[in-house]
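so my prof wants the structure for this chain in the tokens format not the other one, which i didnt know existed until like an hour ago. anyway here's the sequence
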Amino acid sequence: VWEPLLHGKFGASAEAVSAAWLWAKLVDRGGSRTRRGHEVLGYLQGGLGRVFDALVTWLRQHGHEVHLGQRVQRLEVTDMRISALVTDMGVVVPDLVVGCAQVPDLAALLPDSAAAYRQQLQRIKFLANVCLVLTLKHSLSEFYWTNVTDPAAPFVGIIEQTNWADSLDFYGKHIVYLSAYVEQHDPRLTMSAAQLVRHYLPYITALFPEFTPDAIEAQTVWTAPYAQPIVHVGYRHDIPQIVTPIQNFFVCTMAQIYPHDRQVSNGVALARQTAGIVAKAFRDPQKRS
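here's what i got, hopefully its the right format
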């Protein structure tokens, strides 16, 4: 059971995956079930974008500045503290910085003056994710989540969102995600949605013989280059700490929730922990000077 699932997700790195990660995944999933075995999951109508929109609105209403769409080009580090953020719109001199980008992106922002810490972050390797989203005229199956264990299949999971969330939330359409974890050089990362549909179609129809391409009303593709850290044996020694060697720099990313899996609830818990640490540091003048 486990071998094809692990190989489907981690590929060539499957043999190195820590049993602690698998244990935590089983515990988390078991904890979401009732005594009768029914799974209890939550879904925010309208998607998580509503949360971020509400946060931005609240911050602006309370006098805080929120700058969207500004790319941070690099971090300047002087005497092991961040002295400036160089962005597309100019230079920002910060009191404290919380890095929430994926670890490779954070490492790329650090200068040679923080080379030792940059190398520490670069030890963490990632798999990318390709997610093909189909809008269908009718349901694909009766199941919400289907794991695909055939090693020849180009995707590892079929998630029919509207078998869990109400189809009416999606204008009566049926939404299906086809998810694949891939290496950074995998050609699927550069394929268009139409190309992926053509590539995936033989495998979809093998699983669901009654499915025909004319059931597809729309398709789109999302890619994430750093979707899943490779949680190898000993990964706990590589996990970035919230408090970093750079005095006024803190890190809060999904690579830190190990041994647990990447879930919104786990991300929120980490964010709360980070917020408490940052708030304490902000009250300490030595951390800000």
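also thought this was worth mentioning. The radius of gyration is 21 Å.
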